[in-house]
Automatic annotation (TrEMBL):
PANTHER family: DNA-BINDING TRANSCRIPTIONAL ACTIVATOR DEVR_DOSR (PTHR44688). This is HTH luxR-type domain-containing protein. Residues 188-253 form the HTH luxR-type domain. The keyword Transport does not apply. The lineage of its organism: Bacteria, Pseudomonadati, Pseudomonadota, Betaproteobacteria, Burkholderiales. CDD domains: LuxR_C_like.
Length: 256
């Protein structure tokens, strides 16, 4: 059982909610059966230490596109679209840092340097975000992403207090990763391409090295039917060759 936060960490500022509120949020994280309840608890944890905005992003691994990212945020809807757009997500300096590091840092306007990043920051600023705490997230199956607690109140006092909260927020991040797993797995399972039973059967023989002609003999059907199904498989997986389809099907765990 996790220790109560007030047993180990002292609050820097009495204006924020008492520790019992974040303890309650952590308990809600662990107990949340629904995704909406889980994220509400995570956002409550952020608010309890003075951050109005919470964003949790986990990029898919194993062959899925960045457009399929798991994104939950209480920012403006445009922020969710930003991180579900592979092009803009790849230019985001926050995600770039989070995917390459493990340490928590403060982020601000100074992080957005390149022209494309400056355009991105204007969207972030228009959503009411000025700065925040960035916590890298590294999940199972090569998934990486970030947890960001953000604020529009950019003052030196607020930043000093945020620095004092990094250890606590790191603990929140660890709890969020652990409790997010069932919700994340359900989400990514829901967006995986779906094979028909016949397509699964053909794909299994294909990755075993059988040709379309050999598969047609094994399954007692015409070679043209096998080629038809292979073409459908390539379309579902977004690849140009059946060899690439076999590799991607294995990466995505579609062949049981």
């Amino acid at each position: 059982m996790m220790p109560a936060l007030h047993d180990s960490i002292r609050r820097p500022h009495a204006a924020y909610a008492p520790f019992d509120s974040i303890d309650e949020a952590m308990a809600r994280l662990r107990d949340a059966a629904a995704l909406t309840d889980w994220f509400d608890a995570l956002a409550s944890a952020g608010r309890s230490v003075g951050f109005d905005y919470t964003t949790f992003v986990l990029l898919p691994g194993g062959g899925l596109h960045c457009d399929d990212a798991f994104v939950r945020s209480n920012c403006a809807p445009g922020m969710v679209r930003l991180y579900r757009n592979g092009k803009t997500a790849r230019t985001c300096p926050l995600l770039g840092y989070a995917c390459a590091h493990t340490s928590a840092v403060l982020w601000s306007e100074e992080w957005y340097v390149a022209p494309g990043e400056r355009d991105l920051y204007r969207q972030v600023r228009d959503a009411g975000l000025r700065w925040g705490v960035l916590l890298p997230v590294h999940g199972p199956r090569c998934k990486s992403g970030m947890l960001s607690f953000s604020s529009g109140a950019d003052t030196e006092i607020a930043r000093r207090e945020a620095m004092a909260q990094l250890a606590l927020l790191g603990w929140v991040r660890d709890a969020a990763i652990e409790t997010a797993l069932p919700h994340v797995e359900r989400y990514f399972a829901s967006i995986l391409p779906k094979f028909t039973p016949r397509e699964s059967e053909i794909m299994k023989w294909w990755v075993f090295g059988k040709t379309a002609s050999e598969i047609s003999l094994i399954l007692d059907c015409s070679q043209s039917a096998i080629n038809f199904h292979l073409a459908n498989i390539r379309t579902k997986l977004g690849v140009n060759t059946s060899r690439a389809a076999g590799v991607k099907a294995i990466e995505l765990g579609l062949l049981k």
